[in-house]
C-alpha cells in the first residue's frame, strides 16, 4: 500500500511539472536562425558624353547600365521578452551578403556587353512586437516593427544607411517546455539601399529560427 502511494505521488509530481503554465517560465527568450531576403531592381542609367558641336547639341550615349541586387540568405539572432503570454517584444539583428550585379550594354563602339558584380555587406538591427493567437502547441502569430539598415560595398567605399520597417505573420511550434521553432514570412520596407536610384523598396522575407526559453 505504501509502495502504491509512493508511485501515485511520483506520478502526480510528474503531471504537475508537465502541466506547469508557460507563465512559470522565464519571460526571456533567445533565438537564432536564417532567412531568405528577396532581390530588387537597383536601377541604371546612361553614360553620356558631350558631342562635338558640329555633330549636334544633344549628349552622346556611350553605353547603358542596368543593375539588380540578387536575393540572398541571411543569419539572424534575437532576444525577446514576454509582456504577457500572448504579447512579446524582441530586439534582433540580421546580416547578409547580397550580390549587386550590373550589366553594361549598348556600347557606342559596338563592344560586347559585360557584367560586373560586387558583394555587399548588409546589416539590419531593430525591434519587433509579436502577438500570439493562443497558447496551443502550434500557434499562429503576427508581428510588426522597425529598425535601421546599413549597407557597405566590398571595397568599403559606398556606404548607405536608413530606416526600415517590417510586418508579417507565421507559426510557432513548441517542441517542449524550453524549445520552439518559428517560421514566418513578411515584407521589409527599406528607405535606402546601395542602388543607382534612391527610393523606398519592399523586399519579401521568409525566416526560420530555433528559440530557447528557460
Architecture overview:
The chain has 214 residues and is mostly beta strands. It has a domain at 26-38 and 72-97 and 120-213: Porin (Beta Barrel), CATH 2.40.160. Helix content is 8%, strand content 63%. The protein has one helix spanning 2-18, and strands spanning 28-37, 40-49, 60-69, 72-82, 87-96, 99-105, 114-132, 138-153, 159-174, 179-190, 201-213. Strands 1-4-5-7-8-9-10-11 form an eight-stranded antiparallel β-barrel. A hairpin with an 8-residue loop joins strand 6 (99-105) and strand 7 (114-132). The longest helix has 17 residues, at 2-18. Residues 11-23 have low confidence and may be disordered.
Task: Write a concise synopsis of the structure shown.
This protein is mainly beta and 214 residues long. 8% of the residues lie in helices and 63% in strands. It has 1 helix and 11 strands.
Amino acid at each position: 500500500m505504501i509502495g502504491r502511494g509512493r508511485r501515485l505521488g511520483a506520478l502526480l509530481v510528474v503531471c504537475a511539472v508537465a502541466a506547469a503554465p508557460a507563465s512559470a517560465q522565464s519571460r526571456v527568450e533567445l533565438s537564432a536562425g536564417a532567412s531568405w531576403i528577396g532581390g530588387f531592381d537597383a536601377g541604371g542609367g546612361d553614360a553620356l558624353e558631350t558631342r562635338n558641336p558640329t555633330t549636334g547639341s544633344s549628349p552622346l550615349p556611350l553605353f547603358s547600365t542596368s543593375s539588380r541586387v540578387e536575393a540572398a540568405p541571411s543569419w539572424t539572432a534575437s532576444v525577446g521578452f514576454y509582456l504577457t503570454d500572448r504579447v512579446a517584444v524582441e530586439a534582433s539583428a540580421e546580416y547578409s551578403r547580397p550580390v549587386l550585379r550590373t550589366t553594361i550594354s549598348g556600347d557606342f563602339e559596338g563592344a560586347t556587353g559585360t557584367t560586373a558584380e560586387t558583394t555587399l555587406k548588409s546589416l539590419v538591427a531593430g525591434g519587433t512586437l509579436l502577438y500570439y493567437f493562443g497558447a496551443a502547441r502550434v500557434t499562429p502569430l503576427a508581428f510588426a516593427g522597425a529598425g535601421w539598415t546599413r549597407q557597405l560595398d566590398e571595397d568599403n567605399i559606398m556606404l548607405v544607411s536608413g530606416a526600415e520597417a517590417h510586418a508579417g505573420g507565421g507559426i510557432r511550434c513548441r517542441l517542449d517546455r524550453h524549445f520552439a521553432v518559428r517560421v514566418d514570412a513578411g515584407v521589409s520596407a527599406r528607405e535606402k539601399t546601395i542602388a543607382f536610384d534612391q527610393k523606398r523598396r519592399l523586399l519579401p522575407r521568409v525566416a526560420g529560427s530555433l528559440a530557447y526559453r528557460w
